[in-house]
Design goal:
The chain contains 45 helices and 21 strands. A hairpin with an 8-residue loop joins strand 1 and strand 2. Belongs to the ABC transporter superfamily. ABCC family. Conjugate transporter (TC 3.A.1.208) subfamily.
C-alpha cells in the first residue's frame, strides 16, 4: 500500500552490442553520473525482465510445489540446484576453459627457462612467450563474464527465496506465526537468503577442481616422473582432512545460526518494548539476557573461526609444503641434479592446484555448506503449517449471513477456548458479543474470518467480510493509503467515511491532511486516531459483513456514541455487523446480544431481555461509564473559535509532520568509509598493540614463505652450476688427448688419472642446502599457523567488543532515537550488519591481507631480480589510479544503496506480520506480495549495478596486469645477456609474476568487498556514537529510602520532544501533596502523557521537578526510575516465565510474588497452569488476553511498591470486571502512595483528591472535582457535559459525595471463575530459560555501578509482615 513512486529506468543491457556486453561499457553512463552526484536508488537502472522479483518468485514457487509433490522429504537446496542446474553448467564451462588455459602456463614457462640455460633458441622462446601472452588475455576475457553470471544467478536465488518467504508469511496460521518470531523471519530474509546467494559464486569449482587435478597429475607424471608426484600425497591427505574439518564447520554453523536467531528474537522483543523497559529500569536483566545469548553465539563463532584458521593455514602453506615434500623425495630417490626448470615446472603446477583445489575448491565447499544449512532453514520455514484457506460454504438459509454449528476449538490440547458454539446472524443484523476477559470472544471472531485451525463443527458465511482487530494496525504510508488499503481513491466516498468516523477535524489539523505520513506503528498518532483510521479502512472496503473486536475501547464516550449512531447504525445499516464490546450501555440498538463465558454461549437475547439477568454483572453501572481517551474533535460540538484554539494546540504535531519524513530517512553516508570506522573496529578488542602484532605476523609469515622460495631458487642455481661444472670436468677427462686451453683451466685442480665415470653431478653441499630449506619451511609453517589463529581470534575479539558498544549505545540512548528510527532499520544493524562483521568481513579481510602479502612479495621478488621492472610500473600505476578513482566513488555509493535498499524489505515484512489478520480478511495478500516484489526490484537496482561496476573495473585492471606481464616476459627474454639473468632467478620471477597477475585483480575485488562490508561497520559505529541518557551518571545521590512521602513539585517545567519541535509542556508549576490521588484529563495534545514523560525524564525537561525535595533532574535515571512505578495503557509482557515477567531481577521471594498475584485475582488461574509461576509466556503475551496482561502489569506494580504510582489509561482496553479489579486493587494496595492517573473513564478519577486539567501543554484547572464541576469554564465540566444524562449525573453524584465509587459491586469474583483461565496457545516460540535470574553485586555493577547492592533491594521483615 506504499504510495512511493517507483521510476522505471530502462537498463542499457537490453539494447547494447556484444562488444559493450563483453567490456561492460554499457554501465559507463552510471559511472559518469556517480562521479557528478551522490547516487539515489531512483538513478539506477530497473532490473531486466528475467531479474524481476515477481518472475523469479513465480518460477521458484512452481519448482518448490513440484518438489513437494515428488518427494516425501522436500529439500529447498535440491529445488534450487535443479532450477538453476542448466545455467550453472553453462557457466561452469567458462571456468573449465579458463582453468584449462591456466594449466599450460607452467609448461610454457619451463620451456622458456630452457632458453636461459642455453637449451633452446630465442625464436622458440619468443613463440612460447607469445602463447603465454595469448593465454593471459583469454583468461582475462573469460574470468569476468563467469563471475558476473555467478553473482547474477546467486542474486536471483536470493530474490526468489525472499519472495517465497514473504508469500509464506501471508499464508501462515496465527498459531504458527506465534511459534516463529518476526526476528527469526527477518534473519531468514537477511542472513540466510544472502548465504544462499553466496553459495553460487564458487559452485563450478566443485567440478573443475577434480578435473584439473587429474590433468595436472598426468602432465607431471609424463614430464617429470613419479618423484615429483610425491607432493600429491600431501594433497590426497589434505582433501579428506578438509572434509572432516568442514563437517565440524557445518555443525558449528548450524548451532551458530540457531543462537543468532535466538538473539535477534530477543532483540526484536526488547526493541519493540524499549519504552516500558526504560520506564521499569529493566536494562540490567535484558542486557544480561542479550549478553548471554551473544556469548553463546560467539562461542560457536570462535569455533568456526578456529576451523577457518586451520583451513587458512593449510591453504596458505600448502604449495610450500608440497614443494618441500617433492624436493625431499627428489633428493632421496631421483639421483639427479635439482635444476630450475624442474622446480619451476612442478611448483607452477602445484600453485595452480593449490589455487583451484586448495583455495577455490575449499571456498566452494564452505559456500555449499552454508548454502545447504541456510536452504534447510528456509525450507523448514516454507514447510511450516499454513492456514487452511479452503472456501467457506454458504448457509443453506439465504437470509443468513453467518451460521456456526457446534463449533469447538482450543489453542492448546485439552483446554477448550470455544465449546459447542451455535450462532445464527441474519443479513443486515447488528449483533453484539459480550463476556468477561478470556471468555473466547476474539477466538470466535477469528473463527468467523477463517483464522482458526483444527476446530470441529461447521462455519458458514455469505458475503465479503472485514475484520477490525483488537489492536489497531496501521502501516507506514499516508493516512489516505491506510484507509483506501489498495482500493481506488474516490473523494466523495472517502470524505463521507472520514466524517462518520469522526476523523474530519483530525485531518484538518494535520499539515498534510490525508496525505500525512503515518510513522511506524503509528507513533505520530494517538491510540484513538489509529482506531478510527482502522474503522475508516473497514468502511471503505465495502464489505457485506463487519466484525468489530472491541473497536470502541480506544475512543472516548462521545466518539463511541457517534460511531454507534453514525457509523454502525446509519452508514452500515444495510450491512451485517458483529461487535465485541465491554461498553454494554452502548449496545441497546443490537438486535441480539450473545453472552460468552468460559468459551460457551451462556445466554442470548435482546438488550432488554438480558439487562437484569446477565448484562448487569458485566457493567458496574447502567449507561454511566464514559470510555476511551478524549482525542476526538467532534464536529457538532466545536465552534470556530474553539477550532482555531485547537489549531494552535496542534502546532507541535504540524511541525512534527513536516519533519518526520526527513528525520526518519536512513542516513546515506558520503565518500569513502571514514578512518574512524576502521579504527573503531580494529582497535575494539586488543587496541593498537593487537593490531600491530597481527600486521607483524602477516609480514613475518610472507617473509618466511618468500625466504623458502628464494633459497630454493639460489639452491637450484647452485645445483645447476655445479652440474655444468662437473659435466665440463667429465668431458675434459674423457677427451684428454684433444684438450684445449679451457680444459687445462678446468682440470687445474683435478687429477688427470681420475675415472670420468666417477665424476659426481650431484651438488656436494646439498645436505646443508636442504637443512636450510627445511628450517625455512618449518619456520614459515609455524608463523603462518600462529598468524592465522591470531587473526581470527583478533576478529572475534573485535566483533564482541563492537557489538557490546552497539547494544549498550542503542539500549542507553534516549527514546527519541526510537521515534525516528524504524525497528526494521535498527534490527538491520543487529542482524545483517552484525553477521557481516562476525563472518563475511573476517573471511574477506583475511583473504585480502593474505593476497596483499603475496602481491607485496610478487612485486618485491621480481624487482629484486630485475630492477628495470620498476619502469613499466610507473605509467601502468598511473593509469590504474585513474581507473580506480573513476570507479571507487560510484562503487561505494552503490554498496551503500544496497544496504539501505535492504531495510525497507525487513520493515515491510515486520509490518505484514503485525497486521496479518487484517491483510488476509481484506484479501490484500496479492497486492502486498506485488509491493514486496517492487521493493525487492528497487534493491536489485543497487546490488546488480554494484556487481557490474566491479566487473567493469576488474576487466580493465586485468588488462593492465596482462600488459605488465607481457612487457616483463619479453623484456626478460630480450635483455637476458644485458642483465645476466640466471634460470633460477627468471623461474622465481615468472612464478611470482603470474601469481601476481591472478591475484592483483582478485585483491582489488577483495578490497572492494572489504570496504563495502566496512559500510556495515560504519553503520554500526554510527549507532555506537548516538547520545546516551544519563542512566548511571547523576550530579547528586538521593537519600536512603527516598522517596518516603511521595510529594511532587513542578517548578516552571517545559518539555519538547526535539529541539526542532515546540514545547508540549509550557512552564508548568504545581505541587502534589504526599499520598494525594490526582486525575489528569485533557484532549489529545493537551500534554497528559508528556506530563508523565517529564517525571520519568523520557525526554529531558527544562525547569525543575522535585520529589520529596530532591531535584530529579540532577539524579541518574536509574536512581529515578527505580523509585517510580507505571501501569501503561498497553500492557507489555516478554517471552519467558511468568516469574521473569514479574520479577526479572530475582529480588522477591515466592511468598511475595504469590501475594501480588493473589492481589490481582489471578492466583487460581496461575495455580491451574502446569508450572505455576514458572509457566511460559510467549512473546508479547500472545497466549493471554489483554485483561490478563494488564493484571500482570498491576502485579508488577504491587511487587515494586514505590511511593509514586503512575497510571496511563491502564483500563483502556479491558472489560468492566478487569477494570473493577484494577481500580479496587489500586485503592487498596496504594492507599498510602501518591497516585497520578490519566483518565480513561471519568468515573474512575472523579473521586480523586484533585484533578489536573491540561490544555496546550499548560495547566488550565487544578482543583477538587466538585469545585471544577461547578465551574462551567473548566475543562472537566466541558468534558462532562458531552456525556449522556445518566453518565453526567453519575459524575456529579460521585464528585458531590452523594454516591461512592464501588466498582467491585455486583462483580462476579474472578477468583471463583474459570473464565480467567489463560488461553494458553500452543506455542514453540523461543523462551529464554530464566526463572528469576540471580544477579551478584558484581554483575549488577558491571551494567550499572550506581545501583545499590542486592541487599538494599530486599524487603525488610516488618514490611513483609505487614503485607502478609
Amino acid at each position: 500500500m506504499n504510495e512511493q513512486e517507483f521510476v522505471y529506468n530502462k537498463c542499457p543491457l537490453l539494447d547494447c552490442s556484444l562488444f559493450k556486453k563483453l567490456t561492460f561499457k554499457w554501465i559507463d553512463a552510471l559511472l559518469v553520473l556517480g562521479r557528478k552526484k551522490q547516487l539515489q536508488l531512483s538513478d539506477l537502472y530497473s532490473p531486466v525482465h528475467e531479474d524481476e522479483a515477481s518472475i523469479l518468485t513465480q518460477e521458484l514457487e512452481k519448482e518448490w510445489i513440484n518438489e513437494q509433490k515428488k518427494s516425501s522429504n522436500p529439500s529447498l537446496a535440491r529445488t534450487l540446484i535443479r532450477w538453476y542446474k542448466r545455467k550453472a553448467i553453462l557457466n561452469a564451462c567458462l571456468v573449465l576453459i579458463q582453468e584449462t588455459i591456466n594449466i599450460f602456463q607452467p609448461l610454457f614457462i619451463s620451456i622458456i627457462l630452457q632458453y636461459f640455460s642455453g637449451s633452446i633458441e630465442l625464436s622458440i622462446a619468443l613463440i612460447f612467450a607469445s602463447l603465454s601472452s595469448i593465454c593471459v588475455l583469454i583468461d582475462s576475457m573469460l574470468h569476468h563474464p563467469y563471475f558476473l553470471n555467478s553473482y547474477r544467478y546467486g542474486m536471483r536465488l536470493r530474490i526468489a527465496c525472499s519472495g517465497l518467504i514473504y508469500r509464506k508469511i501471508l499464508r501462515l496460521s496465527l498459531k504458527t506465526l506465534d511459534s516463529k518470531s518476526a526476528g527469526d523471519i527477518i534473519n531468514l530474509l537477511s542472513t540466510d537468503a544472502t548465504r544462499i546467494e553466496f553459495g553460487m559464486y564458487f559452485l563450478p569449482y566443485l567440478v573443475t577442481g577434480p578435473i584439473q587435478l587429474v590433468i595436472v597429475i598426468t602432465i607431471l607424471y609424463l614430464k617429470v616422473g613419479a618423484t615429483f608426484l610425491s607432493g600429491l600425497l600431501l594433497l590426497s591427505l589434505i582433501v579428506p582432512a578438509k572434509w572432516l574439518i568442514l563437517k565440524q564447520y557445518n555443525k558449528f554453523r548450524s548451532r551458530n545460526c540457531k543462537k543468532s536467531d535466538e538473539r535477534v528474537t530477543v532483540l526484536t522483543e526488547i526493541l519493540n518494548s524499549i519504552k516500558i523497559i526504560k520506564m521499569y529500569s529493566w536494562e540490567i536483566p535484558f542486557s544480561k539476557k542479550v549478553t548471554d545469548l551473544r556469548n553463546q553465539e560467539l562461542r560457536y563463532q570462535t569455533l568456526l573461526n578456529l576451523v577457518q584458521s586451520l583451513t587458512a593455514t593449510i591453504d596458505t602453506i600448502m604449495a610450500t609444503l608440497m614443494s618441500f615434500l617433492n624436493i625431499s623425495f627428489f633428493i632421496a630417490f631421483a639421483g639427479i641434479p635439482l635444476v630450475p626448470s624442474f622446480i619451476v615446472f612442478s611448483i607452477g603446477f602445484y600453485m595452480r592446484l593449490c589455487n583451484s583445489v586448495g583455495f577455490n575448491f575449499s571456498r566452494a565447499v564452505v559456500s555449499v555448506v552454508n548454502f545447504r544449512v541456510s536452504a534447510k532453514r528456509v525450507g523448514d520455514f516454507l514447510l511450516m503449517k499454513e492456514l487452511d484457506m479452503r472456501p467457506v460454504p454458504v448457509p443453506n438459509d439465504p437470509d443468513l449471513a453467518i451460521e456456526i454449528d457446534n463449533l469447538n476449538f482450543s489453542w492448546k490440547q485439552d483446554e477448550f477456548s470455544l465449546k459447542n458454539i451455535n450462532v445464527q446472524v441474519n443479513k443486515g443484523d447488528f449483533v453484539s458479543i459480550v463476556g468477561p476477559v478470556g471468555s473466547g470472544k476474539s477466538s470466535l471472531l477469528l473463527g468467523i474470518v477463517g483464522e482458526l485451525e483444527n476446530y470441529s463443527g461447521k462455519i458458514f458465511k455469505d458475503g465479503k467480510i472485514f475484520y477490525l482487530t483488537q489492536q489497531p494496525w496501521v502501516f507506514t504510508a499516508s493516512i489516505r493509503q491506510n484507509i483506501t488499503f489498495g482500493l481506488p481513491y474516490i473523494k466523495e466516498k472517502f470524505d463521507k467515511i472520514v466524517e462518520v468516523c469522526s476523523l474530519k477535524k483530525d485531518l484538518e489539523l494535520l499539515t498534510y491532511g490525508e496525505q500525512t505520513l503515518v510513522g511506524e506503528k503509528g507513533i505520530n498518532l494517538s491510540g484513538g486516531q489509529r482506531a478510527r483510521i482502522c474503522l475508516a479502512r473497514a468502511l471503505y472496503s465495502d464489505a457485506d459483513i463487519y466484525l468489530f473486536d472491541d473497536t470502541l475501547s480506544a475512543v472516548d464516550g462521545t466518539v463511541a456514541n457517534n460511531i454507534i449512531k453514525k457509523c454502525i447504525n446509519d452508514y452500515l445499516k444495510e450491512k451485517t455487523r458483529i461487535l465485541i464490546s465491554h461498553q454494554v450501555h452502548l449496545l441497546e440498538s443490537s438486535k441480539k446480544i450473545f453472552i460468552l463465558k468460559n468459551g460457551k454461549i451462556e445466554a442470548e437475547g435482546t438488550y432488554n431481555q438480558l439487562l437484569d439477568s446477565h448484562l448487569k454483572e458485566l457493567s458496574c453501572t447502567d449507561k454511566t461509564i464514559s470510555s476511551g481517551e478524549f482525542d476526538s474533535l467532534v464536529e457538532d460540538t466545536v465552534d470556530e473559535v474553539e477550532f482555531e484554539n485547537k489549531k494552535k494546540l496542534s502546532e507541535d504535531l504540524k511541525l512534527k509532520q513536516e519533519l518526520i519524513k526527513k528525520e526518519r530517512e536512513e542516513v546515506q553516508q558520503k565518500g569513502a568509509v571514514g578512518w574512524n570506522s576502521y579504527a573503531s573496529y580494529f582497535t575494539a578488542g586488543t587496541g593498537y598493540f593487537g593490531l600491530i602484532g597481527v600486521i607483524f605476523l602477516f609480514l613475518a609469515a610472507q617473509a618466511m614463505t618468500i625466504s623458502a622460495d628464494y633459497w630454493l631458487s639460489i639452491w637450484s642455481n647452485l645445483e645447476e652450476e655445479f652440474e655444468n661444472k662437473q659435466k665440463q670436468i667429465k668431458s675434459c677427462l674423457q677427451n684428454l688427448e684433444t684438450q684445449n686451453v679451457n680444459c687445462t683451466q678446468i682440470l687445474f685442480d683435478i687429477d688427470s688419472n681420475t675415472d670420468p665415470s666417477s665424476i659426481n653431478l650431484i651438488y656436494d653441499d646439498r645436505e646443508r642446502s636442504y637443512k636450510i630449506y627445511l628450517t625455512l619451511v618449518c619456520t614459515a609453517f609455524i608463523v603462518v599457523a600462529v598468524r592465522s589463529v591470531a587473526f581470527f581470534m583478533f576478529c572475534v575479539k573485535n566483533s564482541k567488543k563492537t557489538y557490546q558498544k552497539l547494544f549498550s549505545s542503542v539500549r542507553d540512548t534516549s527514546i527519541r532515537f526510537y521515534d525516528l528510527n524504524p525497528i526494521g532499520r535498527i534490527l538491520n544493524r543487529f542482524s545483517k550488519d552484525t553477521n557481516n562483521m562476525d563472518e563475511m568481513l573476517t573471511l574477506y579481510l583475511y583473504d585480502f591481507c593474505q593476497v596483499a602479502m603475496v602481491i607485496l612479495g610478487g612485486l618485491v621478488v621480481p624487482i629484486s631480480v630485475n630492477p628495470w621492472l620498476i619502469l613499466p610500473l610507473v605509467p601502468l600505476g598511473f593509469v590504474f589510479f585513474l581507473i580506480k578513482n573513476y570507479f571507487i566513488s560510484t562503487a561505494r555509493e552503490l554498496k551503500r544503496l544496497d544496504n539501505i535498499g535492504r531495510s525497507p524489505l525487513f520493515v515491510y515484512a515486520n509490518t505484514t506480520i503485525e497486521g496479518i489478520s487484517t491483510i488476509r480478511v481484506a484479501n490484500k495478500e496479492k497486492i502486498l506480495a506485488q509491493e514486496f516484489n517492487v521493493l525487492t526490484d528497487y534493491h536489485t537496482r543497487a546490488c546488480f549495478a554494484f556487481f557490474v561496476v566491479n566487473r567493469w573495473f576488474g576487466l580493465r585492471l586485468d588488462f593492465l596486469c596482462s600488459l605488465y606481464t607481457i612487457i616483463t616476459l619479453f623484456g626478460s627474454l630480450l635483455l637476458k645477456d644485458y642483465l645476466g639473468l640466471k634460470p633460477g632467478q627468471v623461474g622465481l620471477l615468472m612464478v611470482y609474476l603470474f601469481q601476481l597477475f591472478h591475484l592483483f585483480q582478485w585483491s582489488i575485488a577483495l578490497w572492494t568487498n572489504v570496504e563495502n562490508l566496512m559500510t556495515s561497520i560504519e553503520r554500526i559505529v554510527e549507532y555506537t556514537n548516538i547520545p546516551s541518557e544519563p542512566l548511571r551518571e547523576g550530579k547528586i545521590e538521593p537519600p536512603i529510602n527516598w522517596p518516603t512521602s511521595g510529594e511532587i513539585e513542578f517548578d516552571k517545567v517545559s518539555l519538547n520532544y526535539d529541539k526542532n519541535l515546540p514545547s508540549v509542556l509550557k512552564e508548568i508549576s504545581l505541587n502534589i501533596r504526599p499520598g494525594e490521588k490526582v486525575g489528569i484529563v485533557g484532549r489529545t495534545g493537551a500534554g497528559k502523557s508528556s506530563f508523565f514523560q517529564a517525571i520519568f525524564r523520557m525526554y529531558e525537561p527544562f525547569g525543575k521537578i522535585f520529589i520529596d525535595g530532591v531535584d530529579i533532574t540532577q539524579l541518574s535515571l536509574n536512581n529515578l526510575r527505580t523509585k517510580l512505578t507505571i501501569i501503561p495503557q498497553e500492557p507489555v509482557l516478554f517471552s519467558g516465565t511468568l516469574r521473569l515477567n514479574l520479577d526479572p531481577f530475582g529480588k522477591y521471594s515466592d511468598q511475595e510474588i504469590w501475594y501480588a498475584v493473589e492481589s490481582v485475582s489471578l492466583k487460581n488461574s496461575v495455580q491451574s497452569m502446569n508450572s505455576g509461576l514458572d509457566s511460559l509466556i510467549t512473546t508479547g503475551g500472545t497466549n493471554l488476553s489483554v485483561g490478563q496482561k494488564q493484571l500482570i502489569c498491576l502485579a508488577r506494580a504491587i511487587l515494586k511498591k514505590t511511593k509514586i504510582l503512575i497510571i496511563d489509561e491502564a483500563t483502556a482496553n479491558v472489560d468492566y470486571n478487569t477494570d473493577a479489579i484494577i481500580q479496587k486493587t489500586i485503592r487498596e494496595q496504594f492507599k498510602d502512595c501518591t497516585v497520578l492517573t490519566i483518565a480513561h473513564r471519568l468515573a474512575t478519577v472523579v473521586d480523586s483528591d484533585r484533578i489536573l486539567c491540561l490544555s496546550e501543554g499548560k495547566i488550565v484547572n487544578f482543583g477538587i472535582p466538585k469545585e471544577l464541576l461547578s465551574d462551567e469554564n473548566s475543562i472537566l465540566y466541558e468534558l462532562t457535559k458531552k456525556l449522556s444524562p445518566n453518565e453526567k449525573k453519575l459524575i456529579f453524584d460521585i464528585a458531590n459525595g452523594e454516591k461512592k465509587v464501588d466498582l467491585a459491586l455486583d462483580i462476579v469474583p474472578i477468583e471463583n471463575d474459570n473464565e480467567m483461565m489463560m488461553e494458553t496457545k500452543s506455542v514453540k516460540s523461543f523462551v529464554y530459560e530464566n526463572k528469576g535470574v540471580d544477579f551478584s553485586d558484581e554483575e549488577i555493577s558491571l551494567f550499572d555501578s550506581s545501583l545499590q547492592s542486592l541487599s538494599n533491594f530486599s524487603i525488610g521483615k516488618s514490611e513483609l509482615e505487614a503485607r502478609f
